């Protein structure tokens, strides 16, 4: 794999006092790790006519050694010119991420909760690049529709890749934890009343089998029931019967699975079939069946989420109804008639 990074040679690292937009860019890149220029524009300056001002701020951060950029691994398909001749290939977009110095400057500011990772150019260019950008699109859809509806959901209101322990022991990290693609905090405002909610968001780009996706959904059943045990039996108390998630969340978050994939004429049909598979496989899981009254899980597509928003009937509720009588589509509250 060819890695192309542009960083000015011998650029002095300086902790200059940047415009507020520069600070917001650093915070967003610290929390979300990797974003394209277009995603940053839609997230931070959605009403601006063009991205020239944003690009100028990014160039300042680049010159200061606080951010790096890399070409995205995908390249837009060139369109035909009016005379029928093929246009020159379109350059792939830039993807932006923080340097070590940039991440340290954010942590020194003390405004964000520190995260124990540092993204590297090799990780940026790796296989999860597309997944990271798709998770960004999922978060962007929530923020855009929140602004449209007068709700509250901002650039830092979702946290990607949050690990939740689901069993005791010291196995592989992936065996002991479910890693949520994003945890979203959202405030629904209606007639002066505020409903604060937390959502678990899972992005599936059809890169795993339906069975593996169903297994990840089933892991949330483990999370709901997991009670950490003190290694010393003599020190265990009634408090150890409390599920681990209750130490973090006031109620167990709804789980929303968002499906996407490579654009093709058959994408809609493939995602519909994947939804059917997920409905069947999760209903067959004994643990999820036992928890059906306490878990709320819904499935939609990224296209529907972007076009209609989460408060339209775009979600297929799992663990509800029966194969011969499915519940109707619903919004993110996932409430269905009993």
Question: What this model shows, in words?
Answer:
This protein is an alpha+beta fold and 338 residues long. The chain is 35% helix and 18% strand. The strands form 2 sheets. Strands 5-6-7-8-9-10 form a 6-stranded mixed beta sheet, with helices on both faces. Strands 1-3-4-2 form a 4-stranded antiparallel beta sheet. β6 and β7 form a beta hairpin. The longest helix is centred in the middle third of the chain and has 21 residues, at 129-149. The radius of gyration is 22 Å and the shape is globular.
Number of strands: 10
Using only C-alpha atoms, the radius of gyration works out to 22 Å
Give the terminus-to-terminus CA distance: 53 Å
The biggest beta sheet is recorded as:
6 strands, mixed
Specify the number of helices. 11
Class by helix and strand content? alpha+beta
Strand order of the largest sheet: 5-6-7-8-9-10
Strand content: 15-25%
Helical content stands at: 25-40%
The arrangement of helices and strands along the chain is EHEHHEEHHHEHEEHEHHEHE
Q: Give start-end ranges of low-pLDDT stretches.
A: 1-18, 77-81
Structure keywords:
single chain, 338 residues, alpha+beta, six-stranded mixed β-sheet, four-stranded antiparallel β-sheet, 11 helices, disordered N terminus
